[in-house]
Amino acid sequence: MKKEPILSVRNLKTYFYTEDGIVKAVDGVDFDVYQGETLGIVGESGCGKSVTSLSILRLLDEKGKIVDGSIIMEGKDLLKLSEEKMRSIRGNDIAMIFQEPMVALNPVFTVGDQITEAIVLHQKTDEVTAKKMAVDLLRKVGIPEPEKRVDEYPHELSGGMRQRAMIAMALSCKPKILIADEPTTSLDVTIQAQIMELMKELQREYGMAIILITHDMGVIAENSDRVVVMYAGKAVEYAEVKTLFNDPKHPYTWGLLHAIPRLDIEQQRLYNIPGVVPNPLKFPKGCKFNPRCEFAEEICRREEPELKQIEENHSVRCHFWEKVEEAKRAEVGERV
Amino acid sequence: MRSETKRILRRLLRNPSAVIGFSLLIFFIVVAIAAPLICPPQSYNPYMIPIVSWDLTPKPPSDGHPFGVIAGRDIFYGIVWGTRTAFRVGLLVTLISTAIGLFIGSIAGYFGGWIDEILMRITDIFLSIPYILAAIVITSFLGMGLNNVMIALVAFGWMAAARLIRGNILQVREEQYVLAAKALGVKNFLIIMKHVLPNTIFPVLIQASMRIGSLVITAAALSFLGLGAPIGYADWGSLLNFSRNWLLGASGEAFKYWYAIVYPGVTMVLFVLAWNLVGDALRDVFDPRLRG
How many structural domains does chain A have? Predict the structure, then answer.
């Protein structure tokens, strides 16, 4: 039986019209999100992960425009909705948590005020009930003494606590989709694990879908069901998490996985992908990864590859994906 | 919340200039409220300084007239009732012009783009017209009188607040909590009111409190030029206007009529000083960036 996706993004293109030229921050991204599942979006800094998430909520600033594509949620194209309708979707159907819990809460209001704001806004309850709900939510996200914490200001909470409070705020209206933009990047490692565990628990309880944006392959491996790998604004590989880690097809994915330090193999020096992410104003011709790719040939410099479906639930954007497989086999052979 | 109030009070009391500023201000407020007790009104309109003598030469301080007499009018009475005028002009003009500035500045800053462009160019046009000159033109156009002076001061007094709030909003607009609020589906109006203004309003309030003082000077300048309050109205600027002819004293006695200029002048200086010190104190206490 095939599941229906709760959100499907097709050929999303978001450009920024700056004074220096057009920045193609997102230039062709496709993925599906299923209920109760986590979709990971992974890539280096500046590859368009965050812009993708802001495009889904249509929260780009005035320079950014979604020029093409569709974002279908339950049969509706979010890109065609009026601003009014879109606003009722934000927070209600799709909620978002941010990278920096230190700055994502308003410093002049108490934590409780900010959670109640969201509840009153979407659920049409009165302030007193909303405040009770806020306390319950804080308890649910594991904040000790929620009755006391609800009246505290953000600066009185630690980073982990603030991220928990952000999650409570995002969950206040039981969204169908939660977008988490690098939710654990600014937290230390033990807190990271706790927050990810909390999100998984809440996902099970509410049955919501999570879009997890990160540059951390470890977080992806542990927490997601499907993964989109992005490079220079494009989705270069899309697969289930096991497939991606065991059988990467795109040279970029292969490089990313290679760059993870491993204890089971002796390495002299950690592998890194040569070069840097190209300047978005001066993307190379052809495949955008070609200057950094060890498999690149003439055609890669000339023609941009299409996103090809090579197996069920596995697509890749590369002319020579078979070659990556061969190289990998050779390497595994060497090690054995 | 109560500990916050306590903390603010403690900080204010520890700051000597804040204590001076607030004491002066409280003193002026008491004088303004108690004006009918200090100087019982003697005519139908208490704001008109009663005429005590038909002799126009100033008379030095005496028992009945502690600050002396000028143009036949009691200076003490003028100063006491003039306190009310000063508060009325300062507070009303500042309140209205700051409100206009906040409205225009926050719309420009929050929405940005062409709305910002248009509103800020209008602001520039207003800023390019000399303030006093514009006020003179408007009052002579609308006719003399304190209310018209206030209209003129409001019409040309909102730009500083607009620019200040716009700049602050441009900064706060990029904060993640504003994005977070948008991501929760909060309406633009509520975002401005709840998330942007509370984080940007303090510099504007501080600037406003300092403007109250300087506005009184401007209003006095207009009165001095004969554009403000009608002759005999209890207004510090009008008192100075009376003393204009006596500034140089008499031959051989340069300071003969010192009381005509010193009492209204010192009152005005103290009033402005009070507001400036209060503004400084407010900044020290409330500015989130200076918070320890």
Answer: 1
Q: Measured between CB atoms, which of B177, B185, B288 is closest to A104?
A: B177
CB contact under 8 A, B180 and A95: no
Q: How far lies B106's CA from each of A83, B124, B167, in Å?
A: 21, 16, 9
CB atoms under 10 Å from CB of A235, counted, come to 28
Residue A66 located in a structural domain: yes
Neighbouring CB atoms inside 10 A of A307's CB total 17
Please check whether residue B199 touches A, CB under 8 A.
yes
Q: How big is the A-B interface in CB pairs under 8 Å? A: 67
B187 min Cα distance to partner chain A (Å): 8
pLDDT tens for B112-153 read: 888 999 999 999 999 898 888 888 888 888 887 788 888 888
- Establish how many alpha carbons lie within 13 A of residue A252's alpha carbon, considering only the half-sphere containing its beta carbon: 27
Burial class (CB in 10 A: 0-12, 13-18, 19+), B71: buried
State whether B176 and A106 contact (CB < 8 Å). no
Task: Say whether residue B184 is in contact with chain A using an 8 A CB cutoff.
Answer: yes
In a domain, A173, yes or no: no
Let me know if B251 is exposed, middle or buried by CB neighbors in 10 A (0-12, 13-18, 19+).
Answer: exposed
For residue A271, being part of any structural domain is answered with: yes
Which of A83, A88, A99, A106 to mutate to test binding with chain B, by most B CBs within 10 Å of its CB? A106
Average pLDDT over residues B229-243: 82
A229-285: pLDDT as tens digits: 998 888 899 999 998 888 888 888 888 888 877 777 776 777 788 888 888 788 888
* Structure tokens that stand for B115 in this block: 């709305």
Mean pLDDT, chain A, rounded, equals 85
A38-49 pLDDT, tens digit per residue, is 999 998 887 888
Cβ within 8 Å, pair B288-A108: yes
Q: Answer yes or no: is the ipTM higher than 0.95.
A: no
B194 touches chain A (CB under 8 A): yes
Cβ–Cβ contact A87 with B under 8 A: yes
Measured between CB atoms, does A107 come within 8 Å of chain B?
Answer: yes
How many other β-carbons are positioned within 10 Å of the β-carbon of residue B35?
20
Q: pLDDT digit string (tens) for A132-190?
A: 888 988 888 888 888 888 888 888 888 888 888 888 888 888 888 999 988 887 778 88
Q: What is the pLDDT of residue B124?
A: 92
According to the model, what pLDDT value does residue A1 have?
Answer: 45
| Res B97 pLDDT > 80 | yes
Residue B100: its pLDDT value, please?
93
A116: nearest CA in chain B? B184
Which residue is associated with the tokens 């633009």? B188
**What pairing do the DSSP bridges indicate for beta strands A177-181 and A209-214?**
parallel
Whether residues B186 and A107 touch (CB distance < 8 A) is answered with no
Answer whether residue A118 is part of any domain: no
Cα gap A56→A134, rounded to integer Å: 26
Which CATH architecture describes the domain B14-290?
Orthogonal Bundle (1.10)
- The CATH number linked to A32 is 3.40.50.300
Of A88, A95, A107, the CB nearest to B183: A95
- A289 close contact with B: CB closer than 8 A: no
